[in-house]
Amino acid sequence: MMLRRLVFAGAVLALVGCARTVPIEQGGGEFVGQGSLAQRAAEIRRAGAGLGWIMQDQGPGLMRGTLNLRTHQAVVDIPYDTRRFSIRYASSSNLEYNGGTIHRNYNSWIRNLQNAILVQSGANPGRS
């Protein structure tokens, strides 16, 4: 009986570990240091480009990022001001999006983009 429970528990853990979809995460943070809106836009563009994202200005304080990997596409909106930014899901293709869950790789891509933006905002020593 005990062995049967252990086998069942192991099978459940294996299935959970292999889950292809996870709850969708939003990203964002506070920029490092001072910067104008134009500087913040440049930092977001550089961060995205360095990771393979196509970044497009949507107007003051809003950037759209698109990441194409093989047959997958993730699109995010990045509203920002001079102090902070957010990364919000906009759309996707072939990422099993289902209203609140998405392919598990998506959240890693968002965290990488968030971290790259934070690095860019602190990597511009010419600012006053």
Descriptive overview:
With 128 residues, this protein is α+β, with helices and mostly antiparallel strands. The protein has a single domain, classed as Kinase associated domain 1, KA1 (TATA-Binding Protein, 2-Layer Sandwich). It contains three helices and seven strands. Strands 2-6-5-4-3 form a five-stranded antiparallel beta sheet, covered by helices on one side. A two-stranded antiparallel sheet has the order 1-7. It is elongated. The N and C termini lie far apart (69 Å). 22% of the residues are buried. The model is unreliable at 6-17 and 124-128 (pLDDT under 50).
Order of helices and strands: HEEHEEEEEH
Our count of domains comes out at 1
Shape: elongated
Average predicted confidence as pLDDT: 87
Strand order of the largest sheet: 2-6-5-4-3
Number of helical segments with 4 or more residues: 3
Supply Rg: 19 Å
Distance between the termini: 69 Å
In helices, the fraction of residues equals 25-40%
| Strand-residue proportion | 25-35%
Largest sheet: 5 strands, antiparallel
Helix/strand class: alpha+beta
- CATH architecture annotation: 2-Layer Sandwich
Number of DSSP-assigned strands:
7
Protein name: Lipoprotein
Organism: Belnapia rosea
Short description:
The chain is α+β, with helices and mostly antiparallel strands and 128 residues long.
Per-chain topology:
Layout: H1 2-17, E1 21-23, E2 27-30, H2 37-50, E3 54-59, E4 62-69, E5 72-79, E6 84-93, E7 101-103, H3 104-122
Helix pairs in contact: 2-3
Properties at a glance:
128 residues, Lipoprotein, disordered C terminus, five-stranded antiparallel sheet, single chain
